[in-house]
Amino acid sequence: MKSSVSNCPVPTEQQPLNEYEELKSSWLFRDSTLSWRHYFTKILWIWGWSGLVAGPVAAASFPPQKYWAYFFLSTAAGAGIGVVLVLVRLYLGWFYIRDRLYSQTVFYEESGWYDGQTWIKPLDIVNRDRLIVTYEIKPILQRLQFTFAGLAGIYLIGTIVWHLL
């Protein structure tokens, strides 16, 4: 029996499974699928590069020779903003694909923004897509949520240390 995808009117690049495969292989989003060690290393790289921008800004307010602790804390917090922005982009991208895969209907455009259509997925496609969501995408979203929580904890600790100085 042939798969129902062959009868799918949705253009190939707008089919949720193909959008998922494309997202999974793109340079930024693929990093969130790595092992915890490699994922954490990538987050540290983003934090480090963001620190190169945040450091001079922090030095303008807190000269490192005089206020080294405030300089370090403000540089770390400023660099964290770069990490947060990247994480928000990752989360929104994965969340969008999750919604497209989980939905029983697929909205698509045939030739432009003015002629949108809706396709109702057959049951076998719905089941396949929901398995992908459960076993592939939910763990990625949970990892990103855990990273957000970790950053919030780091910001909280930094704030406490700032007030104790």
Structure description:
This protein has four helices and two strands. The chain is mainly α and 165 residues long. The protein has one domain (10-164). Strands 1-2 form a two-stranded antiparallel ribbon. The model has no long low-confidence stretch (mean pLDDT 93).
**Could you describe the largest sheet, including whether it forms a barrel?**
2 strands, antiparallel
Rg over CA atoms: 21 Å
- Name the assembly state: single chain
Alpha-beta classification: mainly alpha
The parts where pLDDT drops under 50 for at least 5 residues are none
Strand order of the largest sheet: 1-2
Fraction in beta strands: 5-15%
What is the CA-CA span between the terminal residues?
70 Å
Give the SSE string.
HHHEEH
Determine the mean pLDDT.
93
InterPro entries: CGLD27-like
Pfam family, one: CGLD27-like
Protein name: Ycf36
Keywords: Membrane, Transmembrane, Transmembrane helix
